[in-house]
Amino acid sequence: MAAQSTHDTDILILGSGGAGLFAALHAHKAAPELAITVAVKGLLGKCGCTRMVQGGYNVALAKEDSVERHFMDTIEGGKWLPDQELAWKLVTLAVERIHELENELGCFFDRNADGTVHQKAFAGQTFDRTVHKGDLTGIEIINRLAEQVWARRIDRLEEHRAVELVKAADGGLSGVLFIDMRTGEYSFVRAKAVLLATGGGPTMYRYHTPSGDKSCDGLAMALRAGLALRDMEMVQFHPTGLLAGTHTRMTGTVLEEGLRGSGGFLLGGNKERFMPAYDPKAERATRDFVSRAMFTEIRKGNVTPNGGVYISMAHLGPERVRREFKGMVERCADCGFDLAGGLVEVVPTAHYMMGGVEFAADCSTTLPGLFVAGEDSGGVHGANRLGGNGVANSTVFGAVAGDTMARWVRRHGRLAEPVDMDAAIARCEQPLRAGKGDLEAIRERLYDTMWERVGIIRDAQGLTRASRELADLDDELNRIGIGGGTRAFNLSWHDWLNLKSLVAVSRVIAGTALAREDSRGAHFREDFPEPGALETSAFTSIRNDAEVTMKPVVFTRVRPGQSLLGQAASHAT
């Protein structure tokens, strides 16, 4: 079977989160004559992880703050594993992006009485630098970005699922193969440049924050295309995922970082605080540390009725909580909890993937014509992402990608004929032709394996077992299908494809976690609890079906033990 339709464009953007939409706007501004197409699995402006951002956007705006201070917080929070040139670009260009969001795109962020932008406290930072719109910041950003995209001559392919990066005969990229979810037909879009900005989405864990349609498709496609991924063992768990029981999909949804940043307490099942015993920063420690402390209390049995811990805000004053965290109060109320005056059950929830495609500071990759930005990329955050740095990452590098692709297409862009797409189509057809299997049973086994053995606390025995279990799940998926059915809006078909991507990426997470025999940030090995020498820091790099390679971190701006703040800056390389 061949693709039933074809379409040509100059720039093809996969994903309509902060990275994809910023890339589209910047590419259009830089080269308005180019044809730009945004392809999205759902509806533009109504899906993706950026829209779900609650807390805010880290940026050094205050006179007492500085980009150097933001940079050091990012490097130290990332346990010295971030690519320092990427981190520097993040903190410096965030200042430009926040002004662009306000002054050009129309975002309304909360302000102080004197008219300056209000910046709140987020855990793991030495300064209150998180810009926000209440606790619904992502909706404000995506609504304004989507409006601007709709107002321009930018094409949209909605409800189109990308399934393969299709190469050209010369080894470059020809375009992308899609399934039109409305009809079930295959569509091929040929492009001069492609941006991978599908987002991450660690929904292979039992408790997760992204919506179920996020299934790491971009990373799975990158693996099949032979690209190297870095830091894939670094999966961030947000400490406070709502724990509302098995009867609702609200379980796992984030209760934002600002709750702890403003003074919220975490309590065990005995209704006593436990964080001061783990870290002097208590609830304002970094996400990885708080998540491990919570998981340790859960393993001890100091749990709530649903098996988590409590978050308590009432001591701050119910009226203040209702005023400052209106969205969170309403979210909890929908599930029967009183956040302002009572206790809410929470559990660490898989939230963000620090790992992704290895890429350069201009968002290019080793595959000519392919660029990457946002959560599909690796190296910006290292071992731990600071809350508020995620949406900054997406908007900063989305804009960089748009500018870069516009220049690249003008200089090097060409439409190339694709190499055979039959193998990719056959892979997608397999579940339609095979007999019906129990996909939910496979999903439950995936949840068990990843939560119990590749989750917050790991060891060699568990990771080795997980690798075997994930290989078995992959084999089982290859044997079963959905027993035919119509192609149009066939959710079972897409569920199989989701699981196939999730299992592929899960195998990489388990493999890199087994290879990293130290503990850094989000990756904690009980059998190797020490971080190792920071001066010899290395990141993991893996290609599909290949051994993990440890690559040394190059300290281009500052070395461990030094700082860009104060006199030590003069010794940095």
Radius of gyration: 23 Å
End-to-end separation = 56 Å
Instruction: Quote the beta fraction.
Output: 15-25%
DSSP helix count?
14
Low-pLDDT stretches are 567-573
Structural class, please? alpha/beta
The strand count comes to: 19
For the biggest sheet, the summary is: 7 strands, mixed
Shape: globular
Mean pLDDT: 94
Question: How helix-rich are the residues, as a percent range?
Answer: 25-40%
What are the defining features of this structure?
alpha/beta, seven-stranded mixed β-sheet, five-stranded mixed β-sheet, 14 helices, 19 strands, globular, disordered C terminus
Structure in words:
The chain is of the alpha/beta class. It is 34% helix and 17% strand. It has 14 helices and 19 strands. The strands form four sheets. Strands 1, 2, 6, 7, 8, 9 and 16 form a seven-stranded mixed β-sheet that branches. A five-stranded mixed β-sheet has the order 17-15-10-18-19, covered by helices on one side. The N and C termini lie far apart (56 Å).
List the helices and strands and how they pair.
Layout: E1 5-14, H1 18-30, E2 36-39, E3 57-58, H2 67-77, H3 84-103, E4 119-120, E5 130-131, H4 137-150, E6 155-157, E7 160-167, E8 173-180, E9 186-196, H5 217-224, E10 229-230, E11 235-242, H6 258-261, E12 265-267, H7 287-300, E13 309-312, H8 318-324, H9 326-334, E14 343-353, E15 356-358, E16 370-372, E17 377-378, H10 389-412, H11 422-433, H12 439-453, H13 460-479, H14 491-515, E18 538-542, E19 549-552
Parallel strand pairs: 1-2, 1-9, 2-6, 9-16, 15-17
Antiparallel strand pairs: 3-5, 4-5, 7-8, 8-9, 10-15, 10-18, 11-14, 12-13, 13-14, 18-19
Helix pairs in contact: 1-4, 1-10, 2-3, 3-10, 5-14, 12-13, 12-14, 13-14
